[in-house]
């Protein structure tokens, strides 16, 4: 197996190319795509085999992996998370789309993780037209994790889609080239206790939205 490299304009993604990527995901494929932070690896959240494949690529235990859901708007978030109070919703509305991952208690609709009911879910709505349009066309969120293997390294391949393609072409089905990515991951905010607890400082500054 060898992946396809699909070049898509980052600001004005053509629908036919987005649909090409969507078809691969619907068939159980794993893709790499740009976000507003680092490139991500993902698949359909409802395809357990594809999720396990993503975990194998990253060397993660499917039962313990902290994979995020990429959604295209706030309505998706309420489908898979609960405990979103009005004050929290107002902050989300101001901060998203943006470089944040918000942690919530998982709802009963959230796909099981490694065969078990997940307790929490990380939600992302990146400020990136390619992935937002892709999720919208797919009709449900994408399970996602970053291409970065070590948060402490600044490997060149993480930002260069051609180098990403060379590294992962035998492991995934598609690599979307949306231009050079960033090397700073999303900021992770824990909202499970009806508050905004900073877990990891990344590209986003949550303070300006509180």
Automatic annotation (TrEMBL):
Q: Which PROSITE patterns match?
A: YRDC
Q: Start and end of every YrdC-like domain? A: 15-204
**Gene3D superfamilies noted in UniProt:** DHBP synthase
Which Pfam family name is an example for this entry? Answer: Sua5_yciO_yrdC
Protein origin, superkingdom: Bacteria
Single GO molecular-function term? double-stranded RNA binding
Q: Which NCBIfam families match?
A: L-threonylcarbamoyladenylate synthase (TIGR00057)
For this entry, the protein name equals Threonylcarbamoyl-AMP synthase
